[in-house]
Amino acid sequence: MVAYCIQYTRVVHSVVMRLLLERLVFPGWRYALAGLVVVIAGGYFFFGHSGNLGATFSIAPGDFKEQVRVSGTVTAAKDVDLGFATSGRISGTYVKVGQHVGAGTVIAETENGDLIAMLAQKRSALDEAQANLASLEAGTRPEELAVASTAVTSAEAALVDAVQSAYTASDDAVHNKADTLFANPRTDPKLTFNTSAGIKGTVEQGRVAIEPVFTNWAQLIGTLSTANVADIAKRSQMYLMQVKAFLADMNLTINQGFPDTTTTTATLSSYSTTLATARTNVNTAATALTTNSTALDSAKKNLLLKQAGSTNESIAAKQAAVAAAVADVENAHAAITKTRVVAPFSGTVTRMDAKVGEIVSPTASLIGMQSDGLFQVETFVPEVTIARVAVGNPATTTLDAYGSSITFSTTVVAVDPAETVKDGVPTYKTTLSFLSADSRIRSGMTADVVMETGVLRNAIVIPAGAIGTKNGVSYVSIVDKGTATARTVTTGPSPAVGQAEIRSGLSAGDTILLAPVP
């Protein structure tokens, strides 16, 4: 227990020091620190423990909001200068000076037809990805199974025909064509023309050997059915190879033949033509047999695949495709949003310097608005997090006067492009507006603001205090069977105070110590 307390104290120290470093831009740090002490006091029971190793944390990827937490002061309602987030040519202005507009009204926009078309494409791709996922999760339809089963039946019938055709072509090639070149071909085959003595003996012995092949093959054909056609097709291919070898020897015999008193050159030429036809027929039958065997094998595999249904891996792949399509839609929508100036709150337009056809830059403020009596919050965001803050970011604000249980909805309406140095630290003045009037809000109140700047999707986020450093390399302590071992990790930007994103080194289901072992 002593070891646990020491390591747990390191977690406290890590987070407390982080809060102390942020006190310059977070005047409400005392309240956060007090709350942190309460949370840490119960940390042992919330996160669990692993013997004397200390408090542990189980890794579970998920979606985490990226937040920037600062404090500020409530100010009275005032004018706000608005501008475009990106460069472009103004395509429309939709309000006039003195006109009252509601929150969310598009005041002006730059040319964005290509972005709108891209958004439509991304939405179409998302619909397709969602449909594919739904189809995969629903499994194979009965109609698809029926089609796959029919394909197997058809392939079996086609292979039966191919086996029979192979036997017929081979029988014709030997018994009706090659045998015309022999005397007594089935009992004591002798060539009827002169040729090389060596090859003559080979083909006469080959003719003797090929006869049992047809005897055995004919017996197989007698038992042929769709149930055993795959096996018989394999054996038929072996018989075909023997027939093709015999016919090749016969062709060589004829090519080496020479005329004599009983055989003329014309006769040998006729033999050659007859044998060539026989070989062509056998080769064609052999090709058909191979093709149909392959087709049956493919049809059977397809049927088995459909009967098995979708695998977890294929569903996960489709889910990933949907997630990617969602991100694409969000990015396309965000790109369009940057081309528009939208009223951040209800109020009156006091200035409209934007003109159709004019090319604008993000640094120009062309439109002015005055809010309808809504209070604002002025705060100063430190340099390390200002890049994540943008006009339109939603935020949750609490006022010290009412405690953290009462929240007010706000939104970022302006971010100063130039820095303001506070106690030697570069900061950027950021203005937020309350979204609705409330009699409880008064000028000068201290406000704590949490701005939502994005979402880390399917990310691994852990307490920042669980990360240690050795020789400049970040690591965590992995707990496995009561033993802690160091594992190197790669971290990303902190999504929120006290949190750290892990880019690599951890996986779902891992258990780590909240205080890494030195």
Write up what this structure looks like.
The protein has helices spanning 2-21, 29-41, 43-47, 113-138, 142-177, 197-223, 229-255, 265-308, 312-337, and strands spanning 56-58, 62-75, 79-82, 88-93, 100-101, 106-110, 182-183, 190-191, 340-342, 347-352, 359-360, 367-371, 376-382, 394-399, 407-415, 420-422, 425-434, 446-463, 468-470, 473-480, 483-488, 490-491, 499-504, 511-513. The chain has 518 residues and is of the alpha+beta class. The strands form six sheets. It has a six-stranded antiparallel beta barrel. A four-stranded antiparallel sheet has the order 3-12-10-5, with no helix packed on it. A four-stranded antiparallel sheet has the order 9-6-4-11, with no helix packed on it. Strand 14 (394-399) and strand 15 (407-415) form a beta hairpin. The longest helix is centred in the middle third of the chain and has 44 residues, at 265-308. It starts with a helix and ends in a 5-residue tail after the last strand. Residues 1-49 have low confidence and may be disordered.
